[in-house]
Amino acid sequence: MEDEKPDGTDADYAPSFEELLNSIKDVDDETQKRIQKHLTRLEEIAEDSPRARLLKTISTRWPEQEEEIADGLRPILLIRLSTDGSPPALGASKVGGVPDLPVGVEWPLGFDDGPVAFVAQINFAECQGLEGCSKLPAQGLLYMFCTTDRADLFEGEPECAVLIGDDPAVDLKPVDPPEDLDEDAEVFTEIGLEFEQGWTLDPSSLPGELFEEVEKSLPRGQGQILGTPRFHNEDLQDGFDPERDELLLALNAFGVIRRPGDIQSIYGGGAFYLVVGKQCLANGDLEDMALLFDPGP
Fold first, then answer.
1. Helices 50-61 and 208-217 sit at what angle, rounded to 10 degrees?
2. Is the pLDDT assigned to residue 255 strictly greater than 90?
3. Domain 75-294: CATH architecture, name and number where available
């Protein structure tokens, strides 16, 4: 006798994952959950999406730890340098150039009341549509400024300024640097930034060696939004509490933040990290952030 099929279907009818799950009888709740997890994973792999392609790679390279690894994946946004060669539009995400500040806002000063170099601006509206972006503001701009004094940079928390422009109704205007800006901190080469889907691992999800192996295999950009900071500086690593702190932004300096004509960055092989409290981020409060600089290995 042929299996009964839902009304309106033909002989080629294929049940959905949900129908397959509902057809399984006489199993305990825990087994049901495991079956649901596997069916969901198969459904994800069948899709042509960044996560699906990553899951296929994981399934091939680490078949025995596939479930464990997949459970530890967390979405992040990878930062890439734009390659189209056109200048960034007013208010677009970028490194270098001059900041597009809200009208009436001046170039900020650092802790010691001296001007600091403009590093980057991030337009949160450009992050929308990617998994994980729900943690971020839906709109508004973030601006990063930092000293170029090498001695100060090696302190970990250098002289800097971080601004938030969260009123979309306010007009933006490119602001030229102040005349007393340090000559080493001249305007950096302007390059647009783009965002794409990325993934990181929860450090507590896997044993140390396996975590390092998988983490190194994940795609990386010139930086990331959200995820786990990769500090080389032990003091910065020890000061970051994953229960309390959230990485908002990481941005590599090498090959990214450089003066016109320079090949290397004035910041060497270091990286910038913006850290915010988990609760503050959850509440949409980005006023109290720490800009850290890791000189690198």
1. 130
2. no
3. Roll (2.30)
